[in-house]
Design goal:
alpha/beta; seven-stranded mixed β-sheet; five-stranded parallel β-sheet
Length: 411
Amino acid sequence: MITVVGTGTGAPVPVDVLAGAALVVGGRRHLDSVRLPEGAERVVLGPLAPALESIAGYLGKELPVVVLASGDPGFFGIVRALAERFGSGLLDVRPAVSSVATAFARIGLPWDDAVVVSAHGRELRTAVNVCRARPKVAVLTGPGAGPAELGAALPGDRTLVVASALGDPRRERVERVTAAEAAARDWGTAVSVVLCLDEARALGAVRTVAGVPGAPARWALEEDAFAHRDSMITKFEVRALALARLGPRLGDLVWDVGAGSGSVAVECARLGAAVVAVEKTPDGVARIRANADAHGVDVDVVHGSAPDALAGLAGDPDAVFVGGGGRELPAVVTACARRARRTVVVAMAALDRVPAARQALTDAGFTCDGVLLQSSRLAPLPGDVTRLAATNPVFLLWGVRTPASSEGVVQ
């Protein structure tokens, strides 16, 4: 058997577990904190492959192995790798309290509604986008993806709780800082976890299902679900297909350029994405913020005209929706296509704009497709009868980045 013991958050390693071990594997600080039995080999965890090979050798000789891990080793921990290699039937897992649970306990907040994301050995941008989209996030950090890097990438309205050396009575520290304060410090190597909070919404509502919120019950909402001016809003039929092509999800960053009422931006945020809405009119900016508040989502609204306003946006988007039109449309689509990682969707009412928008997408290396959407809605007439009321036709183009063209994404 492989006995996997959680430690490092205040839980001691049972003496009897170590007593008969022939091999003890763990991080250096975990190994230094215990007394190994006489004759036991010690393997310090670094690259995982050599440690797994050592474990395999001892199992082949039917010798007992102990693995020391942080907190709950089944939660973003080594249990997954061990089960994949040796099978879960050979594992005796003895978890301690996870660093995430401990950190939330230290600040007196429930965490059944928190989203947990790992930046350890992964792209930091996913963690950043989750923190921008959700009010309560725990980030498991790693080299190059710690509190400083996280703080530098986040908006100023987020509070970071940096928990270091959890469970160590002499070294444990739990500090509340702004994103800017986090970015300005060297946090060392003892960070256990970082909590990212929107303080106004951090307590949260009572939940039935823990963790990542499920998808909303409905999307492509009716126009009257949003404040808008003179019916200047992406109609729900168009929005439905646009959302299908954008594919917004938790961990994504989406731009809504020429956002108008922000209906696409709000819907993408409801589906879990971090969203930036770019709008040139002051009343439009206010309207987008009001719509985001009404639907309980966080949308970063930028007052400015594309394409110039796009240059100052941090982070490359996974998907971009371009609404409206005008003479600047080809330049706007080109600027969006230079930075979009996955797809660009363009909605246009004018036939004359279609060729240039399509050319901008194909020139950027996107595979382009599109449709003309023309729908008729049921409308009542006097006498308890119904007619069909036609909506204005809209051209919807979408470009999908091919693998070869991804090398051109601005980083």
